[in-house]
């Protein structure tokens, strides 16, 4: 399974390098000076950015589902993505000339606050009503999104709002995507504590009985989710649905053992985002469809099919 996924990702990687507005073949990209410059400045960074974003979104979505003990929740629609956009917006209004690192920190702190707020809201919800969690998460994310829109309107920055709330990769160049590596490190950190996170899925009382420091592990996981979400929003904009669909599909193949499931989740997330970006480039070439829009269509279709199969088996 992993070998097939790796082969598919490799094929998509080469296809992504070969597709673009400039008329350059894959051989030209490696053999001519102009082709190498194009590849290094634009096409390779864009491909790497898509892969890193897919890995981060899918893994953070799976970790959040473990923390919330609910499979119908993911950071980009549950307040973390909107909070990160709010952080970037406030930083831009208060410190217009701030460096990208300052905006990154503001986005990460706001995403952390938004994630902690969601955890506090869903904690008292009865476990016998699992649909309440995604409902509360959607409303919570919608409220924060409304605040973002209001602040942007008051600050005369509505023209920039779409950049942070609609993910797309057309503007990715060398020197403008490297923050995603920070998100990749944060995603890798969640794999290091995968066994402890698996214990959390048993419930806090059971995890404590097994000797787990629930507060520390939860804090580390929420911090990782916040960093990943902030890096993606600052660099590419919000890309929803990846963290919802991919973990659910992988769970059907790998089960709930995060140590086993997270690598498959990362691989599937990278494939989904890279395939969606390629599709967005060819649907209306030479124009582009934002990757967030393409993923919404793909993700919604896959999720409906998955639910129907589950109902048939039941």
Report on the architecture of this protein.
This protein is mostly helical. The chain has one domain (2-18, 42-313): ABC transporter involved in vitamin B12 uptake, BtuC (Orthogonal Bundle). Helix content is 76%, strand content 0%. The protein has 14 helices and no strands. It starts with a helix and ends with a helix. The model is unreliable at 310-314 (pLDDT under 50).
Question: SSE layout and pairings?
Answer:
Layout: H1 2-18, H2 26-31, H3 33-68, H4 80-94, H5 100-122, H6 132-154, H7 158-165, H8 180-192, H9 194-200, H10 204-209, H11 214-235, H12 242-254, H13 258-283, H14 291-313
Helix pairs in contact: 1-3, 1-13, 3-8, 3-11, 3-12, 3-13, 4-5, 4-6, 4-11, 5-11, 8-11, 12-13, 12-14, 13-14
Task: Produce a short descriptive summary.
Helix content is 76%, strand content 0%.
Supply the key terms.
314 residues; mainly alpha
